[in-house]
Design a protein that fits this description.
By secondary structure, this protein is an alpha/beta fold.
Length: about 325
């Protein structure tokens, strides 16, 4: 099995392997040391989801007063703060980046909640609308590929009804969708978009770094740009388009590189951008789509540009 196939398989498992070798951190992380505190809540149980860790970062000065803060919820939480827990031994450096942005007064100080992914990652993050809009044959093909139907509706319900209330009980989180944001990469980007689209009364914005529009684990399908994959992204895009009237003043960020898996994303993203260019303004949706030539589909690339989606979500309106 080549490295490409191994990485594809990791989409579905994304569990930390002991003894991961830490890679050199991106240059962006070296600008300053992390401040604040990272708290790991191990083996948490919510609803009928698989048990998982939650990682919470509180910003500098959190313990010095009683102020409340916005909340940024991030998928694949094991990859955010430490190379020791990161799947491939490379972290995003979220605490370093936010420490610097807060110090520069580029963003509002915020709490970060990282939700670790489970062995059912691909099914939990697969947008339900990307399944419901398929033909029966394409649905059967997808179920055979990922081991069953998507679990994203269940995942998002638990996120909204249990995990978010837990965060608000245990940490000083501000109320209101204008203070609740989401972010993720690859399939984690897609589920972050679906959360915003389906729960605009709860969330004020979402950032999807390298969203995996083809929605497939199959290397041959990805390489062939199969029509079945176009149908998946088209079904999800139709759902986003239908929900635009409910997204007034909501913030939507997407980006991609052009290396490794990211090389497959531009045609899908162009269709998303065309719909938003045509219709988002009428519904006062605030959106941004970026491309990063030379960027790949990995934690190093996402860490290197993390400041941009964070500014978009937590910066001045």
């Amino acid at each position: 099995m080549d490295q490409f196939a191994k990485l594809l398989m990791a989409f579905g498992t994304m569990i930390c392997v002991a003894g991961c070798k830490a890679a050199a951190p991106p240059a962006q992380q070296a600008a300053g040391a992390a401040q604040g505190a990272v708290i790991r809540h191990a083996d948490m149980a919510f609803g009928d989801l698989a048990r998982r860790d939650l990682f919470v970062w509180t910003p500098p000065g959190y313990d010095a007063g009683d102020a409340r803060f916005p909340l940024l919820i991030m998928q694949d939480g094991q990859n955010l703060f430490s190379a020791e827990t990161a799947v491939f031994g490379v972290e995003w450096g979220v605490d370093e980046t936010l420490t610097q942005l807060i110090a520069d007064q580029d963003i509002r100080p915020a709490i970060v909640l990282g939700i670790a992914s489970s062995a059912e990652r691909f099914r939990e993050y697969f947008p339900q609308a990307g399944f419901d809009g398929l033909t029966g044959d394409d649905q059967a093909m997808l179920e055979a590929e990922i081991g069953g139907p998507p679990l994203s509706t269940r995942y998002l319900k638990v996120l909204v009804d249990e995990i978010l209330p837990w965060a608000k009980r245990n940490y000083r989180v501000l109320d209101g969708p204008e203070n609740h944001f989401l972010m993720g990469s690859s399939m984690g980007g897609l589920i972050s978009l679906q959360a915003l689209v389906d729960y605009p009364d709860v969330f004020g914005g979402a950032a999807a770094l390298s969203p995996h529009w083809p929605m497939s684990l199959d290397e041959k399908l990805l390489r062939s740009e199969a029509l079945a994959l176009a149908a998946r992204s088209a079904a999800f895009l139709a759902h986003i388009e239908a929900r635009l009237p409910a997204l007034a003043d909501r913030r939507l960020y997407m980006d991609h590189g052009d290396q490794h898996l990211d090389q497959y994303y531009a045609p899908h993203q162009e269709k998303v951008d065309a719909v938003l260019t045509d219709k988002a303004g009428a519904f006062k949706v605030v959106w941004r789509s970026e491309s990063f030539p030379g960027a790949s589909h990995n934690e190093e690339s996402w860490a290197a540009r993390l400041d941009q989606p964070v500014r978009f979500l937590l910066g001045a309106p």
